[in-house]
Amino acid sequence: MTTDGKNLYVADSEVSAIRKVPADGKGEVTTILGEGLFEFGDIDGTADKARLQHALGVVYVNGKLYVADTYNSKIKLVDPQKRTSQTFLGGEKPGWLTTPVFSEPGGISYANGRLYVADTNAHRIRVVDLKTKAVTTLKLQGVDAPKTEQ
Q1: 3-state secondary structure of 94
Q2: Edge-to-edge strands, sheet with 57-61
Q3: Residues 25-58: pLDDT tens digits?
């Protein structure tokens, strides 16, 4: 969930939708993208023609929403006013034995011109520079690996 100060934006994962909820509690919940429980996929487009698949995370940045489109392993860029969605990053790279950019991204946040993406199945945090689209992996220091039972 994220906010623009007036509305809350929610990734409704079970129906692969993005919803807008008035933050003041007045008005109705509206659907920006998505159609229903069995209407999912990976289609860039407008409103009810666009498809996501089990989107989990959403963050508001400068009038746009960045969505962790989890099962498509992509980050989608959504314009909440125009109700459009387009792939920002991710998906399969062409070529044999290439490493995908994301593996089922879940959480997403923003700070200082960068997106921080919880890349769930890869067990890492990816850092995306919004200006260049350069993707790196966050290096953790001073953190021990989990201990395993013997």
Answers
A1: coil
A2: 45-46, 84-90, 74-79, 64-69, 57-61
A3: 999 999 999 887 778 989 999 988 999 999 999 9
Residues 70-120 have pLDDT tens digits of: 999 999 999 999 999 999 999 766 555 566 789 999 999 999 999 999 999
| Amino acid type, 92 | E
Task: Return the SS3 of 120.
Answer: helix
3-state secondary structure of 87: strand
First to last CA, the chain: 40
DSSP state of 74: E
Q: 126 phi and psi, to 5 degrees? A: -100, 140
Q: Identify the CA nearest to 17 among candidates 1, 3, 35, 30.
A: 35
Model pTM score: 0.89
Q: Which own/partner pairs from 116-121 qualify as long-range (CB within 8 Å, at least 24 positions apart)?
A: 117/57, 117/68, 117/75, 118/57, 118/68, 120/70
Given a contact cutoff of 8 angstroms between Cβ atoms, the answer to whether 19 and 27 are in contact is no
